[in-house]
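Sample entry (289 residues):
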Amino acid sequence: MNTSHSNRIFPWVNGALLTITALSMVVPLIHLAAVSLSSPVYANAKLVYLWPKGFQLDVYRTIFGMETLWRSMGVTIAITVGGTFLYLFFTSTMAYGLSRPHAPGRSLIMRLVLITFIFTSPLIPGYLVIRSLGLENTLWVLMLPGAISAFGVIIMKTFFQGLSSELFDAGKIDGCSEFGIYGRIAMPLSMAVNATLALFQAVGLWNSYFSALIYIRNKELYPLQILLRSLILEDDSRLKPPGAGNLMPATPEMMKAGVVLFATVPILLVYPFLQKYFVKGALLGSLKE
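Predicted structure, serialized as tokens:
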């Protein structure tokens, strides 16, 4: 087929723009890794860019030996996994109920969901509700308030409505209840949308900062982002590795770079496992001819 000049140029321009965007995200991480792996002499002189100079692993030996970092990592993993599970369960069940044409109060509930999509809860009333429920200074406060989102409900409701009604009718003929149809038909077919929403929620929970700053007082329950704030902004001396005088194996700046990578890399490793669901799309043939 004959293609116009603009159609031939577009893939190259599009590829160049996407490459520049990807590099703008990856290069800072590469620079942090290079700084954390370099000798303090080169790091202090600002001579490290994208490749370490005077390779050493003292920074990561110190980081891996910090008990508080591992404890906060465990807290963050717990709220990320638990919060994502709660989010998918409550959001999908509500969306499935709203997608059924004969559900009582369906229109009214959907209007209320849309109101929460536009108007969010103010900080002070939200804090009073959290305190009255006894959730303050617990990990539940980081998971339950975001267990349902209007965005997720709308996305999943639209997806469920796009499924063929013949599937649900066949399930009813086979004796499935609404819970059976939801668990055996709707959810297995919605792996793509579930994976996408799970990734969004997991990233948000992993990076949760403001809620923990407001509601968590117990340092034993600090998630990773709050601990990083206290380490990097409040007390640089806590990032100094053991040593004496000029013989220190690393500087606080190098430790900051290592700690940031320590908190960033784990959530990045989730993307390759969920990438195939983005490629497949929202629906893969629900009916066989």
